[in-house]
Amino acid sequence: MTDLSSFPITKKWPAQHPDRLQLYSFATPNGVKVSIALEELGLAYEAHTVNIGANETWTPEFLSLNPNGKIPAIIDPNGPGGEPLALFESGAILLYLAEKTGKLLPADPAKRYETIQWVFFQMAAIGPMFGQVGFFYKFAGREYEDKRPLERYRAESQRLLGVLETRLEGREWIMGEEYTIADISMLGWVRNLIGFYGAREIVQFDALKNVPAWLERGLARPAVQRGLDIPKRPA
Questions:
Q1: Its domain of life (predicted)?
Q2: What residue spans define the domains of the chain?
Q3: pLDDT exceeding 90 applies to what percent of the chain?
Q4: How far apart are CA 1 and CA 155, in angstroms?
Q5: Which of 60, 95, 185, 230 is the most exposed place for a label (fewest CB within 10 A)?
């Protein structure tokens, strides 16, 4: 049996199945990227709920795995060379899992980099901008009298949806016929923007054609449906 005792995080979140990939996460747009990928890939894993509402990402145990204090993070007991590998940052984890399995990432070198390009687009633009809309429209920022920050992030989010709309013209998925980690990286964020954040109207989502159809296709996938609810949120 694999020994993960050298990882301090396992003291707070013990591994019941240390031979399986360990996922430390919460069901947020960033967190579900990894759970969806794991479900799509069919890899054996064990999910641990890291309650961000209770600031569990700032505990010494979690910080030992990710010093940036953000979910998700993983430990793969069977990493490169058969040695355990600890990894954080959802984009890096998606790329690692895709390369580990040879799935969800095109084999053609040019298409591979094109896919990675769109994952980086999500990490650098979609996530930060949509998250700011959530803060200024739904959470504490909505109380600010100055609405210029909200308008800035609303306008930029609407523009980014337009980039996706153009990319998806004539395509089923971001990379055409092939469903990849690029799609997985964005599905949860677009869903959250118009759902949990309630920003559907202010970003004029219903004026789009390709993005809503892509989102519907993605959310209909059984692995996506499962992954969106992993790990289970505290009752």
A1: Bacteria
A2: 9-103, 109-224
A3: 97
A4: 52
A5: 60
Q: What is the identity of the amino acid at 232? A: K
Question: Tell me: domain 109-224, CATH 1.20.1050.10, correct?
Answer: yes
Can you list the pairs that 162-167 forms with residues at least 24 positions away whose Cβ atoms lie under 8 Å? 162/208, 163/121, 164/190, 164/210, 164/211, 164/214, 165/208, 165/209, 165/210, 165/211, 167/118
Calpha distance 52→27 (Å, rounded): 10
pTM (whole model) above 0.85: yes
What are 168-215's pLDDT values in tens digits?
A: 999 999 999 999 999 999 999 999 999 999 999 999 999 999 999 999
Domain 9-103 matches domain 109-224 at the CATH topology level: no
How far lies 132's CA from each of 77, 117, 136, 152, 225, in Å? Answer: 35, 22, 6, 9, 25
